[in-house]
Write a structure and sequence with these properties.
Length: 330
């Protein structure tokens, strides 16, 4: 595996067939999945791996317990975010490689080395290792619920905020920065703003994951809008990509005030409305006071992670936040 992303990336209709070639080097795969995916595609996967697969259901995995199966030589993450995250964690625990086979394009973790782990109702990131290969079969991914695709768009368009804040944090606060990594994420972002093609979205997610691996942290792809999403996780259970997108216009408007926004807040809101990504408190099943508390908490998360927030930079208080939320039509 290259330290800067997967050595094999296949995004196409019928990509799953390629597993046959990759699996020639392995004899004992462990497949991490869920019941729905296993019943739908389990037989097909086993016919392609050419050997009997050990299966483990992602929801029954506990990070604090040892991996129950022995002698496996490759881990296959086959499913949505949770299955891929568990595959990453098992790969780290056992020291063997893993293959990412996403069945939805809902976030940029499909090729990243970071696993999102839930503990006491709280989500945090754990560094693992990136996948040996990413096999994104658009025939399978196109069958995923539409909302998952919208979340995927959300986790890319939020880069309008994360990139701008990263630059601000670098120039105003001395945070580490990398022009090449910035360019990779910017290109991924622009590709999705220009085309809503599924393959474009998947490639953008893979590129964002690669950028984080090169930089060695999620900072290029994760700013205050992500911290707000993590704070929202305390009381809601919405999809990650929808939450980060929801917080993006707010953060982007303040980044605009600070002179760092490269995209107009109105244009991003328009993009979200056109696609059907929730833009109002009601549609996100939250209230203004809860959202304000989440934002307060997000600033603390940013502080704790030594990341400079645009809200701190501009010393934004509650009254200002409240009127901005109203002005932006939340
Ligand atoms: Zn994200």
């Amino acid at each position: 595996m290259s330290c800067h992303g997967p050595s094999i990336t296949i995004v196409s209709e019928g990509a799953l067939e390629e597993l046959r070639t990759i699996m020639k080097d392995y004899a004992r795969p462990l497949c991490v999945s869920d019941e729905v995916i296993k019943s739908e595609y389990g037989d097909l996967l086993e016919s392609l791996t050419g050997s009997s697969c050990e299966w483990t259901m992602a929801t029954s995995y506990s990070n604090s317990e040892p991996v129950g199966v022995q002698n496996i030589d490759i881990v296959i993450g086959f499913g949505g975010g949770t299955s891929l995250d568990v595959a990453k964690l098992i790969a780290r625990k056992t020291g063997i490689d893993w293959i990412s086979i996403p069945t939805a394009a809902s976030h940029d973790g499909i090729a990243s080395e970071v696993a999102s782990v839930s503990h006491n109702g709280y989500r945090y990131s754990e560094k693992c290792k990136g996948p040996l290969a990413v096999i994104a079969d658009t025939r399978i991914i196109s069958k995923a619920p539409e909302l998952l695709k919208l979340a995927g768009f959300g986790d890319i368009i939020c880069k309008t905020s994360s990139l701008a804040e990263w630059k601000l944090a670098h120039e105003e606060h001395g945070e580490p920065f990398d022009e090449d990594v910035y360019a990779i994420v910017e290109e991924a972002l622009n590709s999705v703003l220009e085309s809503d093609d599924l393959e474009t979205l998947i490639r953008a997610e893979i590129e964002a994951g690669r950028a984080m691996s090169i930089f060695g942290s999620s900072r290029p792809c994760s700013g205050t809008e992500h911290a707000i999403s993590h704070a929202m996780d305390r009381s809601t259970s919405s999809l990650h990509g929808l939450q980060v997108a929801f917080a993006t216009p707010l953060c982007l408007s303040f980044l605009d005030d600070a002179g760092y926004a490269r995209h107009s807040t109105a244009a991003i809101q328009e993009f979200m409305r056109e696609k059907g990504i929730p833009t109002t408190l009601a549609k996100m099943n939250t209230t203004k006071s809860t959202f304000l508390e989440d934002i307060d908490h997000a600033v603390k998360i940013m502080d704790k992670r030594d990341r400079y927030s645009v809200l701190k930079h501009l010393s934004i208080g509650r009254a200002e936040l409240s009127s901005r939320i109203r002005e932006l039509g939340y």
